[in-house]
Amino acid sequence: MIKAEHLTKKYGQKIAVNDISFQVQTGKVTGFLGPNGAGKSTTMRLMLGLNNGGGATLFNGKPLYEYRRPSKMVGVLLEAKAFHPTRSARNHLKILSTEGGIPLSRVDEVLDIVGLKAEAKKGPGKFSLGMSQRLGLAAALLAQPKYLILDEPANGLDPEGIVWLREFLKSYADKDKGVFVSSHLLSEMSLLADNVVVIGKGRVLADTSMKDFIDGNVSTSVYVRVSDKEKLIKILDQQKISYKKKNSGFEIHDSKTDKIGKLAFDNKITILELASISASLEEAFLEVTAGAEEYTGKGVNK
Question: How confident is the model over 285-291, as a mean pLDDT?
Answer without folding.
Answer: 86
